[in-house]
Amino acid sequence: MAEVPTGAAAPATPAAPALAIEDLVASYDEVVALHGVSIAAGKGTVTAVLGANGAGKSTLLRAISGLIRVRSGSVLLDGADVTRRRPEDMARAGVAHVSEGQSVITELTVEENLRVGTLCRMSRAARRAALAQAYERFPVLADRRRKPAATLSGGERQMLVIARALLAGPRVLLLDEPSLGLAPKIIGQVMALVAELRDSTGLTILLVEQNARAALGIADQGIVLNLGKVVAAADAAALAADASLLNHYLGL
Ligand SMILES: Nc1ncnc2c1ncn2[C@@H]1O[C@H](COP(=O)(O)OP(=O)(O)OP(=O)(O)O)[C@@H](O)[C@H]1O
Ligand SMILES: [Mg+2]
Q1: Which ligand does the CA of 62 lie closest to?
Q2: Euclidean distance between CA atoms 48 and 221, whole angstroms
Q3: pLDDT tens digits, residue range 7-42?
Q4: Which pLDDT tens digit goes with each residue over 145-167?
Q5: Most-buried pick from 90, 137, 230, 235 (CB within 10 A)?
Q6: CB 208 within 8 A of CB 175
Q7: Is the overall model pTM greater than 0.90, yes or no?
Q8: CB of 37 shorter than 6 A to ligand 1
Q9: Reduced to 3 states, what is the DSSP secondary structure of residue 153?
Q10: Contact yes or no for 176/194 (Cβ under 8 A)
Q11: Domain boundaries 19-103+172-250, corresponding CATH code
């Protein structure tokens, strides 16, 4: 008679996702714009957040970073509940948010743009280290550090915006349409940069994009929002292969 194995070890508890959104409901005053959105994003992954105009993509990022009212549901960072924290507390907790259309101050130099606001709470040494890291990561910005940001191309300005968001050393990066207004060739470069950041830093990134194909090309997983609800959530490759879904919700 075969022996029945006993005392088998219980399966290890899987680590909490770096960012978990659970059944999030958020509103602008009386108007509910998110109706129970959930996402689990592992450390060092890119999640593409897709959807037509008005689907709720920016609202989702605003609700996570504390800019609008969360009615119910939760936001967890590495398992810790950070729902309804104020934006500055979310930043301190390690969430950086690059909002839609956010740009640089063209009259200031590249370095002044990096210094503005973001670095004021740091010690001198930490500030120097953060700037050095930004220049190492973005050599184009190092070459132009004393030039006005007005002299940068659209893609370089987007790089500067992202570099500024990374100065505080976040663990989660919320990017709202980084390709907005960029030429198709440059969009590919920005997507490659996002992928490179994930791979080299282990950042967890939510990438809101109108350019679904470009975003899915580098993302690990994706969700499609429609009228404030998740209508699809899958591996990026599976979403990219679902022509009828992309056509129905994104008009591709
Ligand atoms: N400040 C606001 N006050 C009231 N309603 C808003 C506000 N901002 C957005 N909304 C509404 O919330 C819903 C979701 O908008 P949201 O901006 O999140 O869409 P989006 O997916 O980011 O669209 P887009 O692709 O155009 O950026 C829309 O119905 C929109 O009209
Ligand atoms: Mg938006």
Answers
A1: 1
A2: 6
A3: 445 555 568 899 999 999 999 999 999 999 999 999
A4: 999 999 999 999 999 999 999 99
A5: 90
A6: yes
A7: yes
A8: no
A9: coil
A10: no
A11: 3.40.50.300
